[in-house]
Amino acid sequence: IKTPEFDESSLQPIPVIKGKSETVNIEMEPIKSELLNSSGADEIAVQADISESVEAPVEKNEVVGTVKVMLGDKVLNEYKVYTTEKVEKINVSFLFSKLIQSLFAT
């Protein structure tokens, strides 16, 4: 049994286009241990495919990518990468309030 190694610190927030927040945090399902024979344990690899950005509105738990556990060309398991929060789309009242804040900021 081997747990594939994946550096979850690579799950950085991704940019949100036209959102009230500039970025959205992401996380993934926990990686499970894989049952492998000893000859295949060294060939295991983890491949991440995560969106470079998303467009608002973004819903909480929206899937933005996958992480695949591979043994050679064979996919052993696939895990979803999803957003941890909701990001609303920019609207006129939001832009107006930002303008007012910037005018009175010291």
How many individual β-strands?
Answer: 7
**Percent in strands:** 25-35%
Strand order within the widest sheet? 3-7-6-4
Shape by Cα distribution: elongated
Report the sheet with the most strands, covering strand number, pairing sense and barrel closure.
4 strands, antiparallel
Spatial gap, N to C terminus: 59 Å
Low-confidence stretches: none
The share of residues in helices is 10-25%
- Give the rounded overall mean pLDDT: 88
Tell me the Rg in angstroms. Answer: 19 Å
Number of helices: 1
> What structural category do the secondary elements indicate?
mainly beta
Order of helical and strand elements: EEEEEEEH
Molecular structure report:
The protein has 106 residues and is mainly beta. It is 12% helix and 35% strand. It contains one helix and seven strands. The protein has one helix at residues 92-104, and strands at residues 14-17, 23-24, 26-28, 44-50, 54-55, 63-71, 74-83. The protein has a four-stranded antiparallel beta sheet, with no helix packed on it. It has a three-stranded mixed beta sheet with strand order 2-1-5, with no helix packed on it.
Provide keyphrases for this structure:
1 helix; 12% helix; mainly beta; 106 residues; 7 strands
Secondary structure: elements and pairs:
Layout: E1 14-17, E2 23-24, E3 26-28, E4 44-50, E5 54-55, E6 63-71, E7 74-83, H1 92-104
Parallel strand pairs: 1-5
Antiparallel strand pairs: 1-2, 3-7, 4-6, 6-7
What is this structure, in a nutshell?
The chain is built from one helix and seven strands, in the order βββββββα. The chain has 106 residues and is mainly β.
